[in-house]
């Protein structure tokens, strides 16, 4: 018997190798099924009703079990069998409580076996059944059993995760546990998605996943496990059977009124050796793919490290997007290829490839009115803009990892390319013109990490990160804006702004961890960080006669920048059963040199910095703790703080600097309380944080009716932020509901120069979020989320009694969804969202959005038919009120009106 099993295992591995290569290549051209020896079929009763979750076993001629599986909820089973010419020596047995056992001998030329099960009455003693969701706590790991939290209408594991007690998911797809963002999402222990896990939660079906694990104090590196402290939280999707090949996929096609379409095809395979999730998508119905490959997690087993990217200098408009779901205002035509493939080789080496190709064309039309409140005056900007954006993006990452008990080796190579052609038609203060913005981004990095365990039980850590980044921009404005400042008061035809900050950086460090001490664990790191950058910009004016002249106000920018940092860091960590503490004290010797001959700018700055951090955690019980932290940093500015030449940031904003390199001293202290009772599913957290920042420069703005000019001036500037937040999540067993509550309060104080007057600002905000997830009578699902936000902004002069203005705003956003499972295959849902905004001296704004959905599941065809109706109230304009500093803005956006689309999703 043992030899037969070994033969079966060796041949299965060979078949898996061939299957993986075939599926990966075939995915790029069409959707295919895996080729392997397997049988399948459907289980039904005498009335043709599917029988789900029945056990199906494969037995050999000796009546020994050699294979096992369970039918899914539609009664469909798939069972792998040994690849042997003696297929007829095997038999299938189907068992299910309340039905007679069925046995069928296999035939050599047959792979489909359907069964009609005959009901069989059995005598059971009277029992009381109490069904409740199942959660298991083991150490720092909390395991949610998916079957007890899922609902019939759920399509993906993301639908289940959203309602888990203690877990929250924001609109971008980022997952948090008891107030802390998860570091990463793993699929049966493997980081397949490289931290871009938004797609995985949408595509992986709930039937593939046995449980969802939340791992606190998570340490993914085996050589550091139980040796190096970690406060990270991660989530792991535990597959039902990782030894079998979990192969599946979907093909979806949708069409709607006004030539709307939505189409996608995806293939998935999850096994102990191979994992893949590949998808091809395209739509023009408002579905945004950006969150499907956004970097939501760390994307690596090692701590995230990256060079700070240079700031984006130019834009078409300073106006942002509306604060409603993107599907309401996203007029698009988008396509995405997202390929994620992971292979665990013999010997522990893991290879992974993540590739995304994204194409889009989207439009955004809006009107904006911005009031700038000044002492004794108000300057108003009125803007009407219609923009077309055409981004094209390629992201790649190739990772090789070996994670052993004795050493850790990881190398990640990544390069990204992005091209964007953006254009808009604009009317600003009754002046109409066109503008374009072309961007080209190149980003390359390689991250190498080697961590061996030494013979003396201590650990070395070698890390080298190198990065190249370049993003040239070209802003072309088809009119002569602000001729007083740009062209000596003379009219001109158009203006072109060129800007670029190419950057190369390197971060090399070596650490030595002393772990053989029973009391205090120590880590000493020496590292060197190098940074080379250039800031190039040119401002060119096309005159009325067609000649092109350089801007005469200054010489533009041709600024060279180098920064070298030598870091010596010492860390100390101590822990016992009741408490733990850590202290780090990085010492930084830094040299910065920047020069530009046109401004006689040639500065070298040598500094010695210290940035200590301390943490203390007190364990109140096995699940509760209080932590306190303190950090101090003295950071130095970037190349974007010292350039002297004028840059036309957008059509109404000029930027330059007239200060030396900015220095910021920040001290931050916080207190955090974590409380949880996993057995009764009660989770609570609360935190207080205070941050004070002192800088040697301050932002100054000069405003007139045409343009806003900003620069940094050499004046001391103090800022402070005090915040309080709390959260609660509880599963109520009596009513089968999850309720959540979040609240936050912030008080910020800062100052800036506006038209040569120093103005101190005080901003206060209070936010409250309420959530309810319920299901009644097994058929009616209720979901409610409510958000209230209260803002107050005050501008007070040096004389406290001299109040320039006080402005208050409030906003309420409520979302209610009601679902009804009319039949096992039919699901209805109605969603309503009510938004209310109020602002002093402005009329209140309110909106009611209604959406409806009907889904029918055709089990025989393994196809879901769905009819979506969105924005039933046919709202085509959305108004957003916003308040910040001395500005109050009213933005009105064009949004999608009523839309209907029919989708058919085939599951294979």
Q: Could you tell me the strand content as a percent range?
A: over 45%
> Structural class of the helices, strands and pairings?
mainly beta
Segments where pLDDT lies below 50 for 5+ residues?
A: 1-36, 123-130
How many DSSP H or I helices?
5
Number of strands: 52
The radius of gyration over CA amounts to 31 Å
Largest sheet: 37 strands, mixed
Give descriptors for this structure.
908 residues, mainly beta, 37-stranded mixed beta sheet, five-stranded mixed beta sheet, 5 helices, 52 strands, 60% strand
Description:
5% of the residues lie in helices and 60% in strands. The protein is mainly β and 908 residues long. The chain has a 37-stranded mixed sheet that branches. Strands 8-9-14-15-13 form a five-stranded mixed sheet. A hairpin with a 2-residue loop joins β22 and β23.
